[in-house]
Amino acid sequence: MQNRLAFPIVVLSIVMAGIFGVQWYSSQNRTHYLTIATGAKGGQYYAFAQALAKVVSRHQPHIQIQVLETEGSQQNEKLLTEKKVQLALLQSDTPISPSIEVVGFLFPEMFHLIVTEKSEIKNVSDLKGKRIALMPKGSGSYRLFWRLSEHYGLKDSDFEAISLPPEQAYKALSEGKVDALFRVIAVGTSGVSQLLQNNSTKLIPIDQAAALQLSLPVLEESQIPKGTYNGAIPIPPEDLPVVAVRSVLATSKSVDEKLIYKITKTLYEARNELVEYNTQAAMIRQPDPSMKIGWSFHRGAKSYYDRDRPNFLVEYTDIIGLLFSIGVFLASGIWQLRTSLKNKEKNRCDFYSLEIVQLIEQIETSDDLEQLALIRRQLFTVFGKVVSDFDKDRISFESLQSFRFPWEVALNTLRHREKMLINERNSAERYKSSIQGRGPRKISQKSGVRSERYCKTYPSECHLNNDTDLKNVLFYYGVSAFWRSPKVKIALTSSE
């Protein structure tokens, strides 16, 4: 029977192993197609995305990135939130949904305000009454211009804003159809460079970065270096203060961690190849902790950034050692304090127990019911103190439990002593009544203490003299020996 089962089990095991092996191989070699949302063709985002797609495909053959032309950051964010794309290029000031996370920070994008010489515009405030060419409405440049004009106190009615694609905007400025052009873009781009070679245009400084950061913290204070767009005749003629934002490569939380890890690795380790296709890649740096963008990193990207970081124990050895020492010191102090409190609780409970022992001694030697009543009050007074101390945490539950035993012994002893004295008193009264009225009586048959036959045999033990006073009898025998005397027992237990 076992031989019959062995062969099917072996075959089934081989088949299952083969299935799992094929699935693993398929998952490792499956090509993943991702789409990245960029910007207008001819724009910086579109050009960078094309370079990234080529380099990633070269280093990660199983990852293919398709470049999608869009209107800009605002549309990119929407597409990424709706999961219609897996990657997107955004400006750092773009409002994002919680599902969007960072892969890496790319190059800075400068505020470029380009004007014609004849417009006589020297600063942002001079835009009043002018015609301004802006980028398409879905772009980050379009949105940031209105934040900038608002800061300088300009209203929509103060100028004429015309939204155009980048190439048409450049042409409109060159032909004098507009007085100014505003675009947020990385430095050194060919379109801006060609536009500035014309002596009829120039760059305007934007030097209130710190003030602008109050309303938009993601902005950075930056400058366009002297001669950026022309070295022979420097354009700009000197370092030009401007405001900048950071371009961001973003993704969705739902994108596979391994894919994002590989893309992040390529972004930084193959940066030189990226520079060959797009010079802006030279400005890519790994995240700086001082960056206050307010975005979280995708777990795949974070795994790459933390690859060389020592593990937690190694990195924080000194701090852990210090905390451990402090912990040992505090634990020792707490233990000492606890021991001290326990000793105080025990000493307090021992004091009450000693009081109970003293009361027990008084109970055993007392012959007076009134004195026993006083001892009873003292006994319950001590009990009340113990309960009060327990309620105020002056003694522990264990101490309360240990106190119960001597207190219950004392209470039982008191009850027994009271019962004994009451019986003595009642017996004495019966005896007094018998010697005053009827004389000596025979022992009660019900008592079972002495039989009538015993009294006949020992008559002297069954009667007392009539002239013997009860007080003298009690004094003679003593309280402690009262119940040990056969004579008194027989006399006091006789029936009426």
Topology summary:
Elements: H1 2-29, E1 32-37, H2 44-59, E2 63-68, H3 73-81, E3 87-91, E4 100-116, E5 131-134, H4 140-151, E6 160-163, H5 166-174, E7 180-185, H6 190-196, E8 201-203, H7 209-215, E9 220-224, E10 240-252, H8 257-269, H9 271-277, H10 299-305, H11 312-315, H12 317-365, H13 369-391, H14 397-437, H15 452-457, H16 470-477, H17 486-492
Parallel strand pairs: 1-2, 1-3, 5-6, 5-7
Antiparallel strand pairs: 3-10, 4-7, 4-8, 4-10, 9-10
Helix pairs in contact: 2-8, 2-9, 8-10, 12-13, 12-14, 13-14
Q: SSE string, helix = H, strand = E?
A: HEHEHEEEHEHEHEHEEHHHHHHHHHH
Q: So what's the overall shape?
A: elongated
Kindly provide the name of the CATH class of the largest domain.
Alpha Beta
DSSP helix fraction: 40-55%
Number of helices: 17
Rounded average pLDDT: 79
* Beta-strand percentage range: 5-15%
CATH architecture of the largest domain: 3-Layer(aba) Sandwich
Any low-confidence stretches, pLDDT <50, length ≥5? 439-496
The tally of domains stands at 3
Radius of gyration: 52 Å
Distance between the termini: 98 Å
The major β-sheet equals: 10 strands, mixed
- Compute the number of strand runs: 10
